[in-house]
Amino acid sequence: MSLDRIFEALASGPRRQILAYLSEAELTTSDLSARFAMSTPAVSRHLSVLEQAGLVTSERRGQYVYYRLERDALVNSLAGYAFEVCPTARPLKRESRALARARQGGTT
């Protein structure tokens, strides 16, 4: 999953709202379209973008497809991005990598 896809997915207000709904429950496309002023196919297209970005996953149960938020993917991606652009985080990441390498070198 690339950050470009994640930010493209998050750039849409309806997609952010879909993520908010999915943060509390697994829902079907029909469940979500009932909450929005848009058609089921439109919600389906939004869900496809979110799924391609790795922010949601789907599971077929009988005739319904349930969608759920991939919390770890969202949190890890956004945290990784924040660490890359945060001026304080870069030196800390370098120091952390150096400590990890030193530990690996000392244990092998």
UniProtKB/TrEMBL annotation:
<keyword id="KW-0238">DNA-binding</keyword>
<dbReference type="Pfam" id="PF01022">
    <property type="entry name" value="HTH_5"/>
</dbReference>
<dbReference type="InterPro" id="IPR011991">
    <property type="entry name" value="ArsR-like_HTH"/>
</dbReference>
<dbReference type="InterPro" id="IPR036390">
    <property type="entry name" value="WH_DNA-bd_sf"/>
</dbReference>
<keyword id="KW-0805">Transcription regulation</keyword>
<dbReference type="InterPro" id="IPR012318">
    <property type="entry name" value="HTH_CRP"/>
</dbReference>
<protein>
    <submittedName>
        <fullName>Winged helix-turn-helix transcriptional regulator</fullName>
    </submittedName>
</protein>
<dbReference type="InterPro" id="IPR036388">
    <property type="entry name" value="WH-like_DNA-bd_sf"/>
</dbReference>
<dbReference type="InterPro" id="IPR001845">
    <property type="entry name" value="HTH_ArsR_DNA-bd_dom"/>
</dbReference>
<feature type="domain" description="HTH arsR-type">
    <location>
        <begin position="1"/>
        <end position="90"/>
    </location>
</feature>
<dbReference type="InterPro" id="IPR051081">
    <property type="entry name" value="HTH_MetalResp_TranReg"/>
</dbReference>
<keyword id="KW-0804">Transcription</keyword>
